[in-house]
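Feature request, filed as a ticket because there's no other form

It would be nice if the structure record came with a short human-readable summary line next to the tokens. Right now we just get the raw output. Example of a typical job, pasted below so the devs can see what we mean:
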Amino acid sequence: MTNRGKLKVENLKEVLSRNSQDHVLSFLEQLSPEEQRTLLSQLEGIDISFFRREILRLRRPTADGGRLRPAPCTLLPSSPTEEDNWERAYRTGEETIRRGEIAVVTIAGGQGSRFGSVSCKGFVPITPVRGKPFFQLFAERILAAEARYSISIPWLILVSPEGKKEAIEFFSKRDFFGLKEVHIFSQGQMPLMDRDGKLILSARTSFATHPDGNGGLLLALNGNGLFTTLARLGIKHLSSHPVDNPLALPLDPYFVGFHLLTQSQMSCRCVRKAYAGERIGIFAESGGKLRVIEPPDLPPECASAMDVSNRLRFGQSNASLHLFEIAFLEQFSRPDSDGRRRDLPLHISMRKVPFLNDAGHLVLPTEPNALKMERSISDLLSFADRALLLEGRREEIFSPVKNQLGLDSPETSRRDQVRLFANWLALGKVDMLRDEGGTPPFAIEIAPSFADSAREFLAKWSRLEWRPAVVENFYLE
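Raw output as currently delivered:
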């Protein structure tokens, strides 16, 4: 090791010792020069004192139930006047999309560890007949919008550092599905620490890390020069959705229109909670600001409170579908005169993470042993001076895939897709056998190239001179 390298190690030793992290260099002398450089490079890439301080404080946003109020939300239309307002929003949304002022970002940084060997859920097959992966489904939705509005739509795809190479290969092999403006970029990493704020060694040459959550979008946009790219392309608004919700509409004219008409800096779609104990964040108002309250932070008395209509008082939940004004994102991301940036709050949860013991052997814990820190893009809502919540029908826009089996699994999501397509066909006067929940006894699928909404479906279906029979494995494109 050179004198310069020795000096770097001594400086790091001092920083590590000051933050009770001496164990990280326990095996340093047993490493090759190249392995030492790998470990030291990883250490230099994080602010150890900051993360240790945050872990020890366990700074998680808390909610005072007495100060929370249900968030004001633009509800689904229930009168002719409201229907006129929604129709006006639709026309405004279409005009905005047609002007080419909106880009789409797909949040795909979550790891697909529950779904086999894939590094990203975007590769998981999800449609009910053709088994298209999430990435292909959203590519087809964007392609359909490009054809409908005669424009090119920039598509940004945020992935984890581990999944970036595989994502690029996936899209390259498929010629990016014919899309011309695709940007695949990765989010940052955060260290995993134990309850005492100590880094967790995953190997002799590295410590455990994980993606920094969808709130890492802002740093990733800035760090990859994408604000400059979007400005060059004339983009004024960014539509954001998670990769694991196959019902998400990246370019919904209703949503875009209300966002524009209210001059909102950040807009969110909300859906009614299915039941009081559902593990999903809800929207609330506190101190004149809108917030997303996650399940562990919502007081029990609020979670179960009912309103005069016998519905959950805090029942508008976060579908993670957002529209942002680009100027608002840039303003938040811009450093102050001292070079400091504002940060979204950290959320902390427990995970089971393999670790090296003092003898250098890998241990597989049976109980959660690591604190995982993430930032949520939904927390940006409380920084907006002008914000909008727009209600959506759950069965039309929300069917997330979080688990391999059971609730919120590929099976339940495919069933929701089939039920949605069956509803469209029923509106088109197609008779078919369906159960009490509205689901037919066989799989059907309508491709985005034909329609991605009931409105679009009815317009095209009514113009067909010959309508195909709806039978098992029915596929319409």
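Something like this underneath would help us a lot:
The mean pLDDT is 91.
The longest strand covers residues 316-325.
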